[in-house]
Amino acid sequence: GHDCCETVKVALCASREGHPVLVVAEESFQFVQDEAYDAAQFLATCAGNQQALNFTRFLDRSRPPAADVDFLDEKVALAFRHLKLPAEWNVLGADQSLTENIPRETLMHFAVRLGLLRLTWFLLQQPGGRGALSIHNNEGATPVSLALERGYQKLHQLLTEEGAREPDSWSTLSHTVHSGDYSVKHHRGLDVYLLTAEA
Predict the structure, then answer these.
(1) How far apart are alpha carbons 98 and 163 in whole angstroms?
(2) Are residues 192 and 134 in the same domain?
(3) With the CA atoms of 96, 97, 98 and 101 taken in that order, what torsion angle do they form, in degrees rounded to the nearest 10?
(4) How far is CA 61 from CA 14, 105, 108, in A?
(5) Is residue 66 part of a domain?
(6) Which of 135, 107, 143 is closest to 123 using CA atoms?
(7) Could you list the residue range(s) of the whole structural domain that residue 100 is in?
(8) Is it the case that residue 142 has pLDDT exceeding 80?
């Protein structure tokens, strides 16, 4: 997951109390634009756009295998997390004058239809995420009824249980603290700290 295409310099450091920090290895690598990044960008910009959201329904007819769905879910959810979404961004789109009674397709319908558990969780945390759960599409389905109809038990629990927890993924294993151009991430599973500085 990353927010832009750029070259990044990575230095692996070791430290012990009372000793200077030692640079063990250093390398540069490049973040490139991939399908997950493109998909996240497209979905973020088409929130509320009925023509674009209806276009995404063709994916439903050519549903990828379960292992591919899990991989897609993880990659797109991570890409979404790293997008710089505008402050006014909403799962339901820019036009907040639409009432919940108007049938329409939402990003939440898209994520649930494909069984994207982690993306659904991410969308639930965003403005308009919870409101999207009660919106019917043109077939009369809500995201909750879609999950039930398709037999996605975990997804249905995520949408209906109070205090449902975030699905496991690489990103849930870490905690990030931002400060200006710097951020520190602690990966609990590996007990590694990452210091990122924008240059």
Answers:
(1) 28
(2) no
(3) 110
(4) 51, 16, 18
(5) yes
(6) 107
(7) 35-160
(8) yes
pLDDT digits (tens, 9 = 90+) for 67-95: 678 888 888 888 888 788 888 899 988 76
Q: Are 119 and 73 in contact (CB under 8 A)?
A: yes
Number of domains, the chain: 2
How many Cβ atoms from other residues are within 10 Å of residue 21's Cβ? Answer: 10
Structure tokens at 98: 């639409």
- How many residues are recorded in the chain? 199
Q: What are the structure tokens assigned to 73, written together?
A: 């879910």
Full DSSP string of the chain: --SS--EEEEEEEE--TTS--EEEEEEEEE----HHHHHHHHHHHTTT-HHHHHHTTHHHHTPPPHHHHHHHHHHHHHHHHHS---TT--TT-S-TTS-TTS----HHHHHHHTT-HHHHHHHHHSTTTTGGGG---TTS--HHHHHHHTT-HHHHHHHHSTTPPPPP-GGGGEEEEEETTEEEEEETTTTEEEEEE--
Q: Is residue 83 part of a domain?
A: yes
